[in-house]
Amino acid sequence: MSIARIAPVTFALSLLLAPLAAQAQDPIATVRVGFDRNGVTQVATSGVSDIQTGRAVTADDPVRIASVTKLSVAIGVMRLVEEGKLDLDADINTWLSEPLRNPAFPQTPITLRMLLSHTSSLTDNAGYWNVPLGEKLDTITRQSEAWDREQPPGTFFRYSNLNFPVIAGVMERVTGERMDKLLRRLVFDPLAIDACLGWPTCSDAAVQRAVVLYNLERQPQVDNLKGERRGCPTIAARDRSCDIEAAWKPGDNGAMFSPQGGLRISAMGLARIGRMLLGGGQLDGVRVLSEDSVRLLTTPVWSYDGGNGAIIEEDEPDRGGFFCRYGLAMQHLASGDGKACRDDLFADGRPRVGHSGNAYGLLSGLWVDLDAGTGVAYFATGASNASNGAHSAFSAVEETLAKPLAQP
Are the C-beta atoms of residues 304 and 326 closer than 8 Å to each other? Predict the structure, then answer.
């Protein structure tokens, strides 16, 4: 695609977001990339990636993208399914060293399809990330609080981050590879993206461009790197040591690199994932997934019928009607009537698939319209996760970022 097609709108987003100042503090940085099957169609940025240095944010700067991470994990799962190493509907105990069962329903197998679609009956009530180096994820999954004791696996949607450390453990067990390195091999390298779970497998150039995440008080929360790889890239051991190579054992602790939300990737990188999905699994002549795998990813597994799921973000109870249809790590938009289901982020009634993210003052999204062949990737830092949108359960910032900008 000719670069002439791309309309850079540097700092134009600050003008579009200006009306939000009366409701809440402006985000510190915003980035929006529009794309279609052929390439990037629009780039817009505003603000800084690092308050202290004043470095202007760009669409190539990697950011901790939060739950959009889950979609990249699902792509990796589908590649292993295509290789015959995984089966979406097999009992995951086929691969785990320690059996995983809901103690209230011990005879019901749990599958990858359930984990990817948040219908496994796992919850986040016992935690999902707080496993020190050298310890096992089953310190969480063995706790009664980790499970929905009323709904059997496969019957009820409850968004749970814990599903994805379990998935990562399965992936490590069948390949013998550490999750951050595995996702790089299966997803990021084929798509020519400089992205990583944590920071160990990203380039030095990516580390130098890291976007700092801030809370609403403008205090740094995550990735205040100052151009260097700082600290332990996972939760250190209880003795504060951080020897990952010595401590890692395949499948013991799938939470090590935060497969539920720890992906560092730029908006341009997200756009490449979106273009691959629009291309039926192919990007720039490289086949990453089969068309059948993309179809499986983007087909709903669960749809809200009035009582078969929790349609809120349970750690953000104000966001009622946020989830009403979900596939394999794929959130579906415009799935309801606008009353119980308030998931029409774009306010045009068109079905879209992708994923949202929020953590540490970041809001993010990757959304594709499969029929129209278009999509958008965006993020904002230093932003409130309030459900204050005009027409959806999303925030006003997200509703603004979803809109295409007028050409200059």
Answer: no
Say if CB 355 and CB 339 are below 8 A apart.
no
Encoding tokens for residue 52? 């202290």
Q: Is the predicted pLDDT of residue 146 greater than 60, yes or no? A: yes
Nearest to 105 by CA among 143, 152, 140: 152
Please report where in the chains the tokens 């990813």 appear, as a residue.
297
For 59, the token pair is: 């669409």
State the CB neighbour count (10 A cutoff) for residue 138: 19
DSSP conformation class of 195: -
pTM greater than 0.85: yes
Q: What is the pLDDT of residues 236-247, one digit of tens each?
A: 999 999 999 999
Among 34-38, 148-152, 227-231, 329-333, whose mean pLDDT is lowest?
227-231
Using CA atoms, how far apart are residues 253 and 137, in angstroms rounded to an integer? 5
Taking CA atoms, 124 is separated from 137, 156, 304, in Å, by 13, 15, 21
Tokens describing residue 119: 């219908």
